[in-house]
Amino acid sequence: MTTPLLEMTGVRKRYGGVQALDGAGLTAVRGEVHALLGPNGSGKSTLDKTLAGTVVPDAGTIRIDGAEARIGGPRDAHALGVAAVYQQLSVVGDLTVTQNVVLGLEPVRRLGFLDQRAARDRAGAALERFAAAFSGRLPLDRPAGALGPGERQIVEVAKALARGPRILVLDEATASLHKEQVEVLFDVVRQLRADGVLVVFTSHRLDEVFALCDRATVLRNGRTVGTVELAATDEDELVRLMVGDAPHQAPRPDVAATAAVATSGPAAGAPSATTLEVRGLTTDRLRDVSFTVRSGEVLGLGGLQGQGQSDLLLALFGGAHVGAGEALLDGQPLPLGSPAKASRAGVALVPGDRGRQGMFAVRPIQENLSLASMHRRATARFALRSAAERRAATSMVERLRIKIGSLADPVSTLSGGNQQKVVIGKWLLDRPRVVLLDDPTKGVDVAAKEEIYAIIRGLAADGAVVILNSSDNRELTELSDRVLVLFEGAVAEELSSEAISESRLVSSALRLAPGESL
Amino acid sequence: MSTPVLDPPRRGLGSWRPGPVALAGAVAVALVIAGEIVSPGFAGYGQLVNLMRVAAFLGVIAIGQTIVILAGGGGVDLSVGKVATFSAIIGSRVMDGDDANIVPAVALSLLVAASIGLVNGLGVTLLRIPPFVMTLGMIGVVQGLILAYTGGQAEGRAAPALTSLVNGRVIFDLPGLLFLWLLLGLLAVWLLRRTTFGWNLFAVGANRTAASLTGVRVNRTLILAYVLSATFAGLAGILLLGYTESVFLDLADQYMLPSVAAVVIGGTLLAGGIGGYAGTAVGAIVLTVLQGLLTTLDIGGAWRTVVNGVVLLVLLSLYGRQRRLRS
Amino acid sequence: SDDDGGNGGGGGEGGGDQPYTIGLSNGFVGSEWRTQMVEGLEAAFAEYEEEGVVDELVVESADTDVNGQIQQIRNLINRGVDAIIVNPNSETALDAVFREATGQGIEVFAIDQAVTSEDVTNVVIDQAEWARISAEWLAEQVGEGGNVVVVNGIAGHPANEMRWGAAEEVFNGAGVNVLTVADGNWDQATGQQVMTNLLATYPEVDGVWTQDGMAEGVFRAVDAAGRLDQITISGEARVGFMRLWGEARTNGFQSIGVVNPPGGAVSALHMAINVLEGEAFASGSLDGNTVTIPIPYTVDETTFDQYWGEASAESDAYSLDGSLTRDEAAEFFE
Amino acid sequence: MTGVLDRVRGVQLSGLATVAMLAVAVVVNSALQPNFWDSYALTSNFATFVPLVAIAVGQTIVVLSGGLDLSLGAQVTLASVVAVQIVDGSMDRYPLAVAAALGVGLACGALNGLVVALLRLQPIVATFATSFVYSGLALVVLPTPGGSVPFEVTTAYRDSVLGVPVALLLIVALALVWWVLRRHRVLRHVYAVGGDADAAYASLVPVARTRVWAYVLGGLFAALSALAILANTGSGDPFVGNELTLASVAAVVIGGTALTGGRGGAGGSVLGAIVLALVTNIIFFADVPTDYRQLVNGAVIILALALAGIPALQKRRPAA
Ligand SMILES: Nc1ncnc2c1ncn2[C@@H]1O[C@H](COP(=O)(O)OP(=O)(O)OP(=O)(O)O)[C@@H](O)[C@H]1O
Ligand SMILES: Nc1ncnc2c1ncn2[C@@H]1O[C@H](COP(=O)(O)OP(=O)(O)OP(=O)(O)O)[C@@H](O)[C@H]1O
Ligand SMILES: [Mg+2]
Ligand SMILES: [Mg+2]
């Protein structure tokens, strides 16, 4: 066997009290797409970052082409031919797409003056391969901040490619992409493989892993538990590797049954019948959306991502400017235009962008969980009682099985999946009547996903109105009672429960006539 | 961590690091000891009480500054000094040396201060003027108000009751001012750690978008923060009036930037969302002790200024540091 | 005239061109002293106005830096004034703009703080003399070998340096020990805090020499330490301080207040009118470009009752004042 | 897609808002001041603008990098007193004095960059601390006002070439320097670091070095401001520049640059500085009663700050 292109061994990294990596390793050869898998918080991103130079490990060796590599920063990694697409994007919103693609490696003339034409050419060349993923012309001169999340993700990939890497790290690079964009990306990755590049690929979507990757290394609790040939492995086995030998944990029944019951205050009791009726809702990005949902129902939102699903949820929560239309909750008009009022009317939103919209990274887990509902427990809605707050938060931590050290730790120290549970948990304490979920399992591992599914079902069972947007058609199929397929901000089709299937969702999203197949 | 949390963070013994409050406290003690060495008498009981008394004004002004800075988004209130001055000027004119007028005088001063804070808050939220320049502009406006109100001649005098409240010795020869400060400090800590307002404030400072999408009334919280800032500044002005007994046109102006420095030395991040008042209070003491120490050093004004800057830098590098890019 | 026609008004046309327009440039408003200065000038101006000698007083008064004051003066030039009375923010940094003014035939008078420019007539009291009077008094009180501390204004500020230079000489000559020199920013509250620190670390102090705005703060600090009977304070001629002084007199407290008159602006106005009328300074009244106006009077034990009687109705911030009469001003001219 | 439109409109608007304010200020000022367009008035006005314009350009660069420099005014003071001590009235030594001023700006900027980028102190308080160091040193260098600038320099500064004030040419030159810098890699990196330091770091931008550069450039512009002040005042003063600091921040914001960094440019700040200076003029020539002038001035400045923010207001309306 030839020397592996990349060999990482015994990598350790500690963050305060958290041992993120505890002797992790990864060995891969050139011309390979190597999956890096593991549950949330298992250390995948941290391992990727030690390779890309943004994290300096406490211990461990990295060999590239057999030679020991000292990677003290991104520049060292670059010199060794490593380029990375991070889970947290590194696109600068105020710079144009071109400027982002060449950032840090700008072509210059004499004395460091920029060569704008060369920059444009280079960016154009890098984005050319993804032309199919952009609807119109390549947005070379647009500020990156004006692009949609999927487009931004593509720019990020193009930026990494423009660096001509020997090793390309893709950390959940498909999380914000819709199906076609994923296909374009996969084609590019396959081309790179053919050119001898090593691609380290992390995703929680196992179908993608099987479709693209050759081998997979699995991390658990910061340790490498094994590397498998994917051709000789099935999904169950992979899952078993990821979650360990412990029997695949089914959600505890009490989670489903009582998830929506707040700790203090009257028990929810018999589910009251609630109806949400939306009439002619029109915003910048929505056109005349109307529908009705009843308590106990999960209404799915399907279609290509970016067709207005997130905007619909945001608008119902008062986070978008509403041009026309109204929403009635049990016949009472819902105040649109103020999230504060919406939340007091009993609406909850689990937003799509957890980091930006859902959590307070530097604040303790305690506060993150308490915030939405604390006024209910406070004396005169003002003075907090710490015991009550702690009890409420602890109950949620237990119920959702959030893996934490202490309630006082900043929520940023949790893994992505556990952060997501905190974001959901804060609303469960508020006993919402309408729950709006925007891609609630994005970046969440298999086990946590199942738990979140149970929570969603429990909410509906308790009589809440649930509206769920998901980029994962399987998830929609599994959870929804009905699905509204959106296209360009309007309802293109409504699928009743019998009609919901993954293939139907795909074809409907692409606006193919029913029956016509892909 | 000085973050107001309900239970203390668990730390391994090996990773123990003094929090900003402890560190700032240690610095204060070190400065006092250094002071005693270079000029004996500096650590005497009477002098320590005096230093604490002087620190109290900065400490009270910095309550509001802490609140505003915690609110994030570049939050800072540069108008605190001017507002304190204005409040003292109003208070002095209305009470005019008569105990009977204390209540209306204080009420009017605080009301005017709070309204200035309200305007700051409205400018920052509704007009979206960056706090730094909004409150900077407000300095000019308040100075204008002072001139228009006084015609350039401050009048009146502190009421004797106010003076004895501030300067009078209560127990252990401690002036009433210190007990007032303690009371206000506890109020501030309670407000930040144990009220919905406090937690909303931290949330707004940590992530404004997320706060709004969690149902927090962001603008209301911010406006209240600026109102509180100006009100505490106004209160400090009144206390300063009790201390000096008479006012003049730039009585408290010099507290503008030191109030920010006290907050930062106390470990609160200017980016918002992290910190608390306990640190600020110690920060105010540190700065005051430093000033006292520099005063007693006979090194000439120019070098004294240089030393002041250098020591400030050292203090800041002990704590107020930003996070690294590389972990 | 070298005037390029830009400025209106009567600049550059020589004397006797009534009525005159007078400009005032004041670069600092954070003090009552300055307010008194402006108000005094306005009152004196009104008298001339009634006589038809002058028609407009253009006041530029705002907190500003040297640049801002340059802009103030340029605005006055553009306004076409005949004379500018300026309380300068810098001894030297306005030189160039003063040349612009005189280049357009405008007469410029500096008050309170002398400037270096040859194009300007300084109408000021002798700051060194002002400091010397109180320093000599204090030196006498504490006696040879006595210990004093000093609470000064702002280090590097010309008036501060001039005053302290003179006072230091007095103390050296009298064998008085200066324990330390601290800065009180010409600010009562700072003065009070600084003095409190000094009292703790210099227990052996017998006297304090301080300058105008800070004396009241110093007094309160010494009073709070209960040491008014041991420590002599050089005070100021301001109502606030004099009230404290008067109250403490019954216990034998003594002090001194040398008047630093805001009315200097009025004296300068009289001079300006004379100059605009074409009068020339008498030989001997000019020292270089400086007319030194006498210090009006000094408040001390012997004169306290007299001056307190006149001033006690004023507010605390009121400075005892004095200015030349028109006749006295005329004596400086040929 | 509306996002893009909003954005493009926003960018143009923020420039437009400043230009509109300038236009209004000029119209109002010339209406109130009959001789506004006369040669002396023009020359003297521009002569007053240059120091603030220069320091505002420097502040812009620091702000774009995500920082703030509260010591720029003290740097102006220090650079000016060092230069005036060297030149001491002699034209022969003027080039040396210019070099020394720039050297001071460079050194101060480097120290600020060091404490902010390498020690990672928070810019507002760190530069507040260094401002003590610089203003203290200025007093050491020049304990009391004095020294003189060569007559040739002060005269040339007030002169005009073919009817165009030299000071105006200097302002144009400053804008030109900015225009050139914008085309340099360092400025691109400044924008990236101010926009998103983490992203820039991960994208191979030398973040710390870029921050140091931003403060150094700020210091160099402060030095230029010092030279302009010297030419304007003709002599040295150890307090001369200190109050320019806060005004420079106001000019930056009125010019449409975001204090959060990464967005804006010095072109706006140049106009913003001029607007600020004109406001003072307007209030003077409008004969606002003395006691109310400062009030009106403050209110007008807040109004200008609000107007400068309107484009951002429109841009931000759609949530998320
Ligand atoms: N900057 C940090 N500070 C503190 N703890 C951290 C930090 N980054 C990661 N961690 C912790 O390290 C562990 C590993 O995190 P990492 O992001 O590598 O997990 P991951 O496998 O990528 O998870 P996910 O699938 O959710 O992305 C987690 O427990 C996380 O909480
Ligand atoms: N998330 C919150 N943070 C802080 N204060 C809150 C929050 N939610 C509500 N409050 C406070 O509670 C007060 C009352 O709110 P409101 O009347 O809308 O609640 P409600 O809908 O009546 O509550 P409930 O749902 O329990 O009946 C508000 O003025 C607000 O200050
Ligand atoms: Mg990850
Ligand atoms: Mg409610």
Automatic annotation (TrEMBL), chain A:
One of its GO terms (molecular function) is ATP hydrolysis activity. Residues 6-246, 271-513 form the ABC transporter domain. Keywords: ATP-binding, Nucleotide-binding, Repeat, Transport. CDD domains: ABC_Carb_Monos_I, ABC_Carb_Monos_II. InterPro entries: AAA+_ATPase, ABC_carbohydrate_import_ATPase, ABC_transporter-like_ATP-bd, ABC_transporter-like_CS, P-loop_NTPase. Gene3D superfamilies: P-loop containing nucleotide triphosphate hydrolases (3.40.50.300). Pfam families: ABC_tran. PANTHER family: CARBOHYDRATE TRANSPORT ATP-BINDING PROTEIN MG119-RELATED (PTHR43790), GALACTOFURANOSE TRANSPORTER ATP-BINDING PROTEIN YTFR (PTHR43790:SF9). This is Monosaccharide ABC transporter ATP-binding protein, CUT2 family. It comes from Jiangella alkaliphila.
TrEMBL record, chain B:
It comes from the Bacteria. It is found in: Cell membrane. Keywords: Cell membrane, Membrane, Transmembrane, Transmembrane helix. One of its GO terms (cellular component) is plasma membrane. It is a multi-pass membrane protein. The chain crosses the membrane at residues 20-42, 54-76, 102-122, 129-150, 170-192, 222-243, 255-272, 277-295, 301-319. InterPro entries: ABC_transp_permease. It holds the Pfam family BPD_transp_2. GO terms for molecular function: transmembrane transporter activity. This is Monosaccharide ABC transporter membrane protein, CUT2 family. It comes from Jiangella alkaliphila.
From TrEMBL, chain D:
Keywords: Cell inner membrane, Cell membrane, Membrane, Transmembrane, Transmembrane helix, Transport. It holds the Pfam family BPD_transp_2. The chain crosses the membrane at residues 12-32, 44-63, 93-117, 124-142, 162-181, 212-232, 244-261, 268-286, 292-313. GO terms for cellular component: plasma membrane. Its main location: membrane. It is found in: Cell membrane. One of its GO terms (molecular function) is transmembrane transporter activity. It is a multi-pass membrane protein. PANTHER family: ABC TRANSPORTER PERMEASE PROTEIN YPHD-RELATED-RELATED, AUTOINDUCER 2 IMPORT SYSTEM PERMEASE PROTEIN LSRD. This is Autoinducer 2 import system permease protein LsrD. It comes from Jiangella alkaliphila. The lineage of its organism: Bacteria, Bacillati, Actinomycetota, Actinomycetes, Jiangellales.
